[in-house]
Amino acid sequence: MLDLVIKQIIQETSKVKRFVLAHEDGLGLPTYQPGAHIELQLPSGLRRQYSLCKLPTTGKEYEIAVLLDPFSQGGSEELHRMKEGDALKCFTPQNHFLLSNPRVPALLMGAGIGVTPLIPMAQMLKKAGTDFQFHYSAKNPESAAFYEALQQSAFVDKMTFHFSERQRIDLKKVLGGADPKMHIYVCGPSAYIEAVLDTAMAMGWSSEKLHREFFSGKRSASMDEALKESFQVKVASTGEVFDVEPGVSITQALEMNGVDIPVSCEEGWCGTCMTRLLEGVPDHRDTFLSDAERLEGKIIMPCCSGSRSDLLVLDL
């Protein structure tokens, strides 16, 4: 756990603020690779994860960009109320969206606040001299975080902006014009990511070349109804079996019975609670696992997922 202070707040757009964070004692901070995120513990006790939006330079600052979400559960609202000099606690950087190889050509595709983890990737690719394209979708220039900075960046020649008020991105055209050897890195709202991935796979991209990070979990009415089904979970190491009642997540049911699994986002996109599944058929509701991992059925995100069988046996 790191003790940080807000060194600077920059108003990127009317709804996005960029926060420059530093150690309260001016110490150096743990380094990280493109695609990494940090988890902040806010003064209220809420814990939220945010992508780091700049490669480390001095080694003494972290930068994040936070959208004031109209559907916020409190995290973005609390951060947007904070001031320069306010204290925050932070866990060391983690990375579930790693730039697999900075020497391999890449197609970076971001929408809205999903642009943040892609910026360090672009910086790294530029530094490595690797070919890449960067497509950024937003409603208009006024709502596009980092718009001015990206226009003045060292890789502006790689940038293409798509503003839906004028003309939405043509995914078939963009992907059709890209080198099929490129790896695709995509981040943003779930609908955008699904559209990019579906189009890429239909055009022949293999799953090994597709990398994604969601900023919101996929939810639907059918998923919410599935959450109401009762089932049981078994802790393999002790043999204990617990009921998972309607409206209660697996992690909540276990916690009520003294079994703790680390959780963070509680929406299935961060990977913190990933748990091995020994028996049973999961009902995956996360956005972290790949299609291949879901089909294999050996891993579950218990913070949000349910069950299609009466019993799930967890490797705990």
Structure description:
With 316 residues, this protein is of the alpha/beta class. It has 3 domains: 2-94, Elongation Factor Tu (Ef-tu), domain 3 (Beta Barrel), CATH 2.40.30.10; 106-214, Rossmann fold, CATH 3.40.50.80; 221-314, Roll (Ubiquitin-like (UB roll)). 19% of the residues lie in helices and 30% in strands. The chain contains 8 helices and 18 strands. The strands form 4 sheets. A 6-stranded antiparallel sheet has the order 4-3-6-1-2-5, with helices on one face. A 5-stranded parallel sheet has the order 9-8-7-10-11, with helices on both faces. A hairpin with a 5-residue loop joins strand 12 (231-235) and strand 13 (241-244). The longest helix has 13 residues, at 190-202. It is globular. The protein starts with a strand and ends with a strand. The relative contact order is 0.11. Mean pLDDT is 88; it is low at 216-228.
Give the helices and strands, then pairings:
Elements: E1 2-11, E2 16-23, E3 37-41, E4 47-51, E5 61-67, H1 75-81, E6 87-94, E7 106-111, H2 118-128, E8 132-138, H3 147-151, E9 159-163, H4 171-176, E10 183-188, H5 190-202, E11 210-214, H6 221-226, E12 231-235, E13 241-244, H7 250-256, E14 275-279, E15 282-283, H8 291-296, E16 299-300, E17 306-307, E18 311-314
Parallel strand pairs: 7-8, 7-10, 8-9, 10-11, 12-18
Antiparallel strand pairs: 1-2, 1-6, 2-5, 3-4, 3-6, 12-13, 14-16, 14-18, 15-17
**Share of helix, binned:** 10-25%
Radius of gyration: 20 Å
**Name given to the CATH homologous superfamily of the largest domain:** Nucleotide-binding domain of ferredoxin-NADP reductase (FNR) module
- Strand percentage, roughly? 25-35%
